[in-house]
Specification:
This protein is mainly beta. The protein is built from one helix and eleven strands, in the order E-H-E-E-E-E-E-E-E-E-E-E. The protein is globular, with a radius of gyration of 15 Å. This is DUF2948 family protein.
Length: about 150
């Protein structure tokens, strides 16, 4: 499978990126805001949702890939439920959303399991995610209850 390389310039594009990074795991220390560059960036271990085993082959054929991501034109960053003093703490990314304020400006929100979130105030949507290397096997496939709600 070719390596993933996606860019987002509107809410529809961002929804595609969100689907591909759902259930990615990362450490708190693997993300950073660079105010002078107006960039929020990091690395994740994303679950390879686009390569699902066929039929009943869902045994242990899942994969993860190391990927880099960034959001540009970021004016401010706020977080809740994330302890920046614990750089080795692991976060599980559930979704990325966007709420427009004064279009094309708005807030991009990274929503994590356990109630954590990072809000990025942006001039406009300008984001990218790209795989950095080969996949590796994982024996765990993320599962979600239909009752789970994203705040």
């Amino acid at each position: 499978m070719d390596q993933l390389k996606l860019a987002a310039f509107d809410a529809e594009d961002l929804a595609v990126v969100s689907a591909h990074v759902q259930d990615a795991v990362l450490k708190v220390g693997d993300i950073a805001f660079i105010p002078k560059e107006k960039r929020f960036a990091g690395v994740i271990n994303r679950f390879v949702w686009e390569k699902q085993p066929e039929g009943n082959a869902r045994k242990k054929n899942w994969e993860r890939r190391r990927s880099g991501f960034h959001f540009d034109r970021v004016l401010a960053v706020r977080s809740t439920g994330i302890d920046r003093s614990r750089p080795d703490a692991v976060l599980d990314l559930l979704a990325i959303g966007f709420e427009a304020s004064d279009e094309p400006a708005g807030t991009i929100t990274l929503i994590f399991a356990g109630g954590g979130a990072i809000a990025l105030d942006v001039e406009c949507i300008e984001a990218a995610v790209r795989d950095l290397g080969p996949a590796w096997a994982t024996q765990c496939c993320p599962e979600h209850s239909l009752d789970e709600k994203i705040a």
